[in-house]
Amino acid sequence: MTNILLIGGAGFIGTSLAKRFLQDKDYKTFVLEPECANLDRLDAYAKLISIIQGDLRDSAKVLKVLVENDINIVFHLVSTMIPGSSLPHFQNEMDDILMPSMNLMELCAEKNIKFVYFSSGGTVYGNSTSAEHKESDDREPISYYGLSKDLMEDIILFEHRHSNLNYLILRPSNPYGPGQNIYGRQGLIAVLIGKILKNAPLHVWGDGNSVRDYIYIDDLADAIYQLIDKKISCETVNIGSGVGYSVNEIIRILDSIINKEMKVEYVENRGVDVDSMILDCTKLKKMIDFHSIDIETGIRKFVETIKKARIFMVNKG
Fold first, then answer.
1. Which residues partner with 264 through β-bridges?
2. How far apart are the C-alpha atoms of 124 and 128, rounded to whole Å?
3. What sign does the CA torsion over 216, 220, 225, 227 have?
4. Which end of the chain has a smaller Cβ tally under 10 Å, C or N?
5. Average pLDDT, whole number, for the chain?
6. Is pLDDT of 104 > 70?
7. SS3 218
8. pLDDT tens across 4-59, in order?
């Protein structure tokens, strides 16, 4: 039995990972979230996983969780930032996430626990001239969000050199799909769907030609499961579709799937968004049997799930 701890496991990616690992009886899943966290996404799995209330900053509590539950792998999914975050947000991230994470890494190294970190497949590369970003490309973030991910990666590599930390750095592209908050601030596809359903205008930063790599959430979760199950360690790995779509193309796809009138408003570019982000996933495909569904199929499945949930809520009410 392999015991895994998802720190920040009540979020979109964390819940999807819990769901995937529950399909394998050789894994037991624990989730660590602060008392103020919204655990609604985990309701369907509450009887199958162990949810522990605790704060990453409480190193004594974290150590107790690691030892008492004989944790073998820690997944670090927690962050307080989004791509548009400013300097004050970054300063809070340093205090609330980065410094406590250093303590966590030392504990993991001491207890021989694998540390899996979710970086960002777009923001760490910055405006690289590469058509497709490889793991070996320079990290040149242009946002505070990207800087926070960049620093975490450096700290992980330092702890590996310093204390032989067993790690895996994952750089996912933009995940989307069931379970994502369509009324939140992050995740272009989800946010656009939410705006359309509310009959609100679609605000697009810049001219809509910025390109991103999108991956369906179930494909992302399965890729991560395979990497863990194959015991891939001390590597940095991109996880994406390897295909880029502009914001305008995503809007056209949504227009063909959702039968609702939409109004698009273009606003001034934020300056913290990279022009193009497509991941080279050659390394990933050499490690595992990786497949990802095409964007239109994925968005259609996402929209159908939302429609079914809305109908259920209406009938329930």
1. 202
2. 10
3. positive
4. C
5. 92
6. yes
7. helix
8. 999 999 999 999 999 999 999 999 999 999 988 889 999 999 899 999 999 999 99
Q: How many C-beta neighbours within 10 Å does residue 259 have?
A: 6
Token representation of residue 131: 């058509």
Q: Do 253 and 295 meet the contact criterion of CB atoms below 8 Å apart? A: yes
In this structure, what token pair is assigned to residue 276?
A: 């193009």
Report the alpha-carbon distance of residue 193 to residue 99 in Å, rounded.
36
**The two three-digit tokens of residue 242, written as one number:** 């390897």
For position 315, what pLDDT does the model report? 37
Q: Which residues fall within 8 angstroms of residue 169, CB to CB, at 6 or more apart? A: 117, 119, 153, 156, 235, 236, 237
Please give the distance of CA 86 from its chain centroid, rounded to a whole number.
Answer: 20
Q: Give me the amino acid identity at 209.
A: N
**Residue 316 binned pLDDT confidence (cut-offs 50, 70, 90):** very low
Report DSSP letters for 106-152, one per residue: HHHHHTT-EEEEE--TTTTT-S-S-SSB-TTS-----SHHHHHHHHH
Q: What letters, b where the CB count within 10 A reaches 16 and e where it falls short, cover 38-61?
A: eeebbeebeeebebbebbbeeeee
> What amino acid occupies position 215?
I
Q: Please write the tens of the pLDDT for every residue from 261-307.
A: 889 999 888 766 777 889 999 999 999 999 999 999 999 999 999 98
Contacts of 127 (CB under 8 A, 6+ apart): 140, 142, 274, 275
Q: What is the DSSP letter of 279?
A: B
HSE-up of 27 (CA within 13 Å, CB side)?
20
Kind of pairing, strands 244-246 and 276-277?
unpaired
The span from the CA of 253 to the CA of 257, in Å, is 6
Quote the tokens at residue 92: 């809070």
Nearest CA-CA partner of 124 in 279, 248, 246, 284: 279
Rounded CA-CA distance 44/41 in Å is 7
